Amino acid sequence: MAADETSIKVSAAARDRLARLAAEHGTTIRSLVEELAQGTPTQAEYAERAELARAELASALGSAPSPEAEAKARALLERLGGAHHGSQTAA
C-alpha cells in the first residue's frame, strides 16, 4: 500500500454491493468509492454554491431571491428528483 493510501472497513454485504455496482459501471470498487468521495459535495460546498448563486442572481436581477422563493425552488427540485443527498442548502 502506498503512503497516501488507506483502507476502510465495511460489511461483507456492502462490499458485495459495491463490487456489483463497480462491475455494472465497468470500474473497480476503489474507483467507485473515489468517484463518490470526489464527486459528492459536502454541506459546506453546497452552502458555498448557494451563496455564489445568490450573488449571481443579485448581480443579474438587482436582488437575491427571497427565502420564500428559495424554499419554493427547493421544493420543486425535490419533487423533480433534484435533491439526491438529503437536506441540502441550494439556491
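That was protein one. Protein two is written in the same sequence-then-structure order:
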Amino acid sequence: MPFLTRVLPIFLVSWLLTFTLASLFHSQYVVNQLVNVGVVVSLSERINLTLDDWLGLLPTYGAIIAIALAIAFLVTAKLTKKVKQYSMALFIAAGITAFAVVLVAIESIMNIHIIAGARRWGFYLQLLAGALGGLLFALLTKALATKQ
C-alpha cells in the first residue's frame, strides 16, 4: 500500500508538471515559428492554442511521458538506494534522459518529429520539462522521507 499512498501521488504531481511544461513549451515554440513568418497571433489565440494543445496532447504525448518517466524514476529510485547523496541530480538526469530517449527514438524509428515543438531549440525545452519534473519528484520524495 505505501506505493498507492506515497509514491503514486508524488509521481502524478511530477508527471502533471512535466507534461504541462512540455505542452506549454511545444505550443509556444509553434506560435513563435508562426510569428517568425509574419503571422499575427493575439494573446487570446496563444492561450486558446495552448489549452487546445494541452487537451489534444494529453492522451498520446501525456501517456508517452508518463511511461517514460515511470521507467526512468523506477530505475533511478533503485540506483539512489546506493548513492543517496546524488539522488536529486540523478532524478533530474532521469527526467532529461526519459525525454531524450522518447524524442530521439520516435524520430529515428518513424522518421518524424512526434512533437513539432521539439525541433531545434524546442528539443532542449522538452528536456528542460523533463529536468523540472525529475527535480519536483526528487524534492517531493525527499520531503516525504523527512516527514516519516
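The two ends are 15 Å apart (CA to CA). Keep this in mind for the problem set.
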